[in-house]
Amino acid sequence: MKQKPFGCSGINVPVIGMGTWKTECDDKKEVIEAIQRGLDLGMVHLDTAELYGTGEVEEIVGKAIDQKREKVFLASKVLPYNATFEGTLKACERSLKRLCTDHLDLYLLHWRDGQSLEETFRAFEDLKRHGKIRMYGVSNFDVEDLKEAIAIVGEDKIACNQVLYHLKERSIEHKVIPFCEEHKIAVVGYSPFAQGHFWDSKPEGDKVLQKIAKSHRATPRQTALAFLTRKESLFTIPKASKIKHVEENCISVELKLSHEDIHEIKRVFPLGSFCGLPML
Ligand code: NAP
User: Fold this and answer.
1) What is the CATH number of the domain that holds 49?
2) Is 52 part of the annotated catalytic residue set?
3) In which domain, by residue range, is 167 found?
4) Sign of the CA dihedral 27, 17, 116, 174?
5) First vs last C-alpha separation in the chain
6) Residue 215, class by beta-carbon neighbours within 10 Å (0-12 exposed, 13-18 middle, 19+ buried)?
7) Residues 88-134 pLDDT 10s
8) Which of 5, 72, 153, 158 has the lowest CB atom count within 10 Å?
9) 29 located within any domain
10) Which of 139, 166, 191 is the best mutation target for the ligand 1 pocket, counting ligand atoms within 8 Å of the beta carbon and taking the most?
11) How many structural domains is the chain composed of?
12) Nearest ligand 1 atom, CA 194
């Protein structure tokens, strides 16, 4: 699996990782096998959160990475309601326990909701000093939030911003991606398949995607993932609880879209004028 530098962190991370939201509703054995297959294929960026299944998903992930922990780039997230200084330290301990590990590679603030960013980042720094997390980042931050965050912790501290990004929702291209690129913050796109609504789009979009996919002997989903990771700053974390889906997603990194392909995809899935931050 191709890797690239993850923001300011100085480490390489796979272009395509794996999400885990709602896997508590899937067949758990199948989910664990799918995650393990993905890890074997090099999709070692594994994204979870204390929110998912109210901790149940972290337990599933813990089982899936047992015996494979050293190869995983493990990310989890603290809920804003827990993100005081003390609350963040405690939430991290609970996540570590559920995940059966002694450290996270990446710890994110799930979204902003009125809590003190100073406290959250002080806790992140503390966790880093004590080896509980290797790096930290944010999620669902718009440019104003990011400016505030950088004013608190300084440059080269925030490894990534995890944000909604799929073909029908490209708003982050207006301001968030350029800002992140300028400040060496990796952009991790979530819900790359629009949360299972991949095909609910304009017929022209679907037709063009199929045509481009066919010309590369790829699938439309692989074409979408290639588009969503076409720049050095962009990573993606599709969720797949079936081995065949994991395998299909993994091969996307081999797909090189031409300038014409990218132009055509942009034409049929237009950017729109909304400049704010999209959230689910
Ligand atoms: P998604 O990745 O856009 O879509 C997941 C759906 O696509 C599942 O139904 C999955 O099916 C299906 N799928 C995956 N690969 C497929 C393939 N090759 N062929 C056909 N179907 C395929 O949805 P998401 O879970 O919302 O987003 C991904 C991850 O981003 C989440 O799991 C989570 O880790 C993260 N996320 C973060 C936030 C945040 O606020 N930071 C918000 C949302 C999501 P199967 O499961 O049946 O394989």
Assistant:
1) 3.20.20.100
2) yes
3) 3-202+231-255
4) negative
5) 29
6) exposed
7) 999 999 999 999 999 999 999 999 998 899 999 999 999 999 999 99
8) 5
9) yes
10) 191
11) 1
12) 3
